[in-house]
Amino acid sequence: MVPEAQSQEFLKQGQNIVDTLRAQPGFLRGRLARSVDEPNLWALVSEWEGAGYYRRALSAAKMAMYPLMILMVNEPSAFEDIYVSGQEE
Length: 89
Description:
By secondary structure, the protein is α+β, with helices and mostly antiparallel strands. The chain contains 2 helices and 2 strands; from the N terminus they run αββα. The chain has helices spanning 7-22, 51-65, and strands at 27-34, 42-48. Strands 1-2 form a two-stranded antiparallel sheet. A hairpin with a 7-residue loop joins β1 (27-34) and β2. α1 (7-22) crosses α2 (51-65).
């Protein structure tokens, strides 16, 4: 949960994290999202070629992520697509 007074700083730091992740092998895309219903709830979402790439990238991004760790909500961190519709093959 990000207090409104910290949202602009969080956005800057979140962009830095996404940029750090983007530089890592296996990165496909990343984004910061903000809840429409709960504006203090943000998500950093990244997509990878595989879980191994994601886990190695977290090690590389650890220092960029450190300042935001106190604001993080403990949620599952890795998902595997089971069904995707609308993507080009």
